[in-house]
Amino acid sequence: VQLQASGGGLVQAGGSLRLSCLVLPYIFSFDAVGWYRQAPGKERELVAAITIGGVTKHADSVKGRFTISKDDAKNTVYLQMNTLRPEDTAVYYCNTGRTTHRAMGGDYGPDYWGKGTQVTVSS
Questions:
Q1: Angle in degrees, CA 74, 80, 83, rounded to 5
Q2: CA-CA 20 to 30 A from 18: which of 7, 30, 56, 82?
Q3: How would you write the pLDDT of the chain (123 residues) with one tens digit per residue?
Q4: Long-range contacts made by residues 85-89, C-beta under 8 angstroms, separation at least 24?
């Protein structure tokens, strides 16, 4: 399983970005895909996750601003980020397997991470 994250960049506060996570060979090789972020000096945290059935979960800090979605035909999970804030600055990673299963109530399977994509929000 390979995950390829893209779409990061530099944006002003209040702006938008859309991250993409291409999951190969198949979007739901496991039961859920999640987006995580890690800011300097902080632990990695869940941003949002989506299951094979379309059930979603968003961190409280991003509810109403970020939306996770999927396109099964393109094997891609998206994270639409609106109204960005400087505190959203972090490296964003996508994951499938155990870590995201735990976030959605399960605890099984191996764990796969993509390389991160940097999101920088200027004030």
A1: 170
A2: 30
A3: 999 999 999 999 999 999 999 999 888 788 999 999 999 999 999 999 999 999 999 999 999 999 999 999 999 999 999 999 999 999 999 999 999 999 998 888 899 999 999 999 999
A4: 85/13, 85/121, 86/13, 86/121, 86/122, 86/123, 87/39, 87/61, 87/121, 88/37, 88/62, 88/119, 88/121, 89/39, 89/119, 89/120, 89/121
Locate 121 and state its tokens: 């929000």
- Give the chain's radius of gyration (CA, Å): 13
What are 82's two structure tokens? 């609106």
Task: Report the run of H or E that residue 102 belongs to, with start and end.
Answer: helix 98-103
For 121, other C-beta atoms within 10 Å of its C-beta total 20
